[in-house]
Amino acid sequence: MKSLVGLDSVTTQNRPDEAFTSMRPAHVYANVTPGQHIELVAALHGPWRVAARIVIILLSASGMSAPEIAELLHHEPVTVRRWIARHTREGLAGLPDRPRSGRPRLGSPRLGQRIHTLLQTPKAWTTARLWRAARRPEMSLRTFYRRLREQASWRRPRLIAKGDPDHDTTCATIAARIAALPAGSVVLAEDKTHLDLLPRVRSCWMPTGLRYRILTPGSNIRRTVHGAINLATGAWHHHVSVKNVSVVFCYFLQTLLDSYPDAPVIAVICDNGSTHHSAITRRWLAQHPRLQVIEGAKYSPQDNPVERVWAGLKHHIANTAPATMAARIRQATPTSVAEPPSRTSPPPRPGPAPGYPKVSDRSFGLVLSFDTPQVPGRRRRAFRTSSVLCGATAVVTGHSPAVSLFQVRSIARARAAISVDLSDPCLLRRRTRRSSNIAAAELPSS
């Protein structure tokens, strides 16, 4: 019996002369369009190229020649022979792609060195300015930024002082003058700073996604604060005024004289400000020989312990915006002086003054040694520091006649209070009324 067209003829074992017709097709061919054919060949040479190399090895093992495999898989015969040779040497591990360098980087190989050379000169460098200074390399600013990040980081410059070449000589002279003072004399370190209504902005922790907004006053108002600390006892003296002029400085010196009526000599060590050696100040000092003004080394604030008070004060009022100058002064005025702790502790080690790399162990050339009393469970240690202050905390020390002027026996802590002297004639005459629950006396208006 004849089979139907396109169907298989199957002969039975019992009756060879008879056959029955099966419904299984004789052959199946894939219908591939030209576009699909190109896509399959591209996948065979692209994402599935490792699988194609395995097929090459299997076809070669089955007896097909390299030209036949190349014609079947759309490769060159030399490519087929290369993969067969690599499989022979390395096995299956040799069929995947080997690491490759990729596309060469844009710009010359010496672009990084050129950027590094340009950054050696301090300027307000930006990405666009460096790109122009680097002779406009053929790349986008974003690509140049990535190359720039390999050589530099975005930071603020640091201000430093040039220093005094005669620093050691000046400090030795100050130490000699202090040593020649009569017994019972008082030595104070003096400095000034400014309180601004304009907020001082400093970095701090903020919630993620939120940035603090601090209101500016529109126009700034400034007050000057003079401060002095007794280097033997830690007693703090201060004065707030409108301007930093010689008359105000002389008024502050007068308050120091009134604070120590029994001292034979009061030596005030200060910086080289113009008000410290002006004609008005020299005439006032000639009329008050009991007070001596000693100027320290130039550009050496790290020698002055009062600088640590100002650093703590400015840190305390940073990122705040009071409405008036009187509120700013009240903000810098503690309501009460903290009580000393029950257990004595060593004085905090101060950090460097702003703009200076370190703090020496001398204050105007005078060694300040602090000997901590015996504490139960703790071995007695001696602390040496250049300042008796750290931040806005003053280390109040007790002076013993049995030791030197700068050797102390007991140490406690107290907050440095900055208040307003309403009897100061240099303050503005305008006053603003405040209710009794805010302040007991009137404060200078802003």
Kindly describe this structure.
With 446 residues, this protein is of the alpha+beta class. 28% of the residues lie in helices and 18% in strands. The chain contains twelve helices and 16 strands. It has helices spanning 34-45, 49-61, 66-73, 77-90, 111-118, 127-133, 141-149, 167-179, 246-259, 279-287, 306-316, 325-331, and strands at 7-11, 19-25, 186-196, 222-230, 236-241, 266-270, 291-295, 362-363, 366-367, 369-371, 382-384, 389-390, 393-399, 407-415, 431-432, 443-444. The strands form five sheets. Strands 5-4-3-6-7 form a five-stranded mixed β-sheet, sandwiched between helices. Strands 11-10-14-13-12 form a five-stranded mixed β-sheet. β6, α10 (279-287) and β7 (291-295) form a beta-alpha-beta unit. Mean pLDDT is 74; it is low at 1-12, 335-362 and 367-446.
Short description:
By secondary structure, the protein is α+β, with helices and mostly antiparallel strands. The chain contains twelve helices and 16 strands.
